[in-house]
Amino acid sequence: MAKIFITGSSDGLGLLAAKALIADGHRVVLHAKNEKRKEETIQKVQGAETVLTADLSNIQETKALAAAVNNLGDFDAVIHNAGVYGNAPAQQIFAVNVLAPYMLTALINKPKRLIYISSDMHLQGETKFDELKSDIEKLNYSDSKLLVLMLCKAVARKWEDVCSNAVNPGWVPTKMGGSNAPDDLQKGYETQLWLAISDDEQAKTSGGYYFHQKVSPYHSDAGNVALQENFLEWCREITGVSFD
Description:
Layout: E1 3-6, H1 12-23, E2 27-32, H2 35-44, E3 50-53, H3 59-70, E4 77-80, H4 90-107, E5 113-117, H5 129-134, H6 141-158, E6 163-167, H7 185-197, E7 209-211, E8 214-215, H8 225-239
Parallel strand pairs: 1-2, 1-4, 2-3, 4-5, 5-6, 6-7
Antiparallel strand pairs: 7-8
């Protein structure tokens, strides 16, 4: 059985993925934003190893979360599920959707598999680093999902011993997606599970972008090596955390 850490697993797709993994006998460590969310999560999920807390919009708390994860030993998979949507302030979107997965990737001991949650909205995103460096308020949700896909692709290129993949869960009826979202909720988290634990040869490849376990087209900027290096350096400058 696999040992898996899931960020943003106090509700939504992260919570559903955690429940499914635990029901299948896997060892799962959850994450909640604060102590109140932690207690609520403990009531919702039976059988988790533990629930760690950190506000991922806070750089120091995110670094402390990585240390807490490492204190629990090595993991087979890490699912970077946490995210905030477009009605949040741009600074919060950047911190939670982009900087947090960057820092956690760099600081947590390498797992065998990494899964990042992107979105089909990344196709409307732009890299526009020069603009964002001078004014982060110009960043939107689509931009953040392009950048996290770029992170996934950079990890796949640099860490050949880790399977790094990204998922478009679709527009599903969660708190983030809203009750009228048209896509299948179960299919929204099943691809995360498949990439985290499956023995399918496709699930053990790296650098993929998937929708319902099928490879999907993605924004060409995500695979641009020069842009990836620019992005990684920018994150290092902001956080003080290097990605090697």
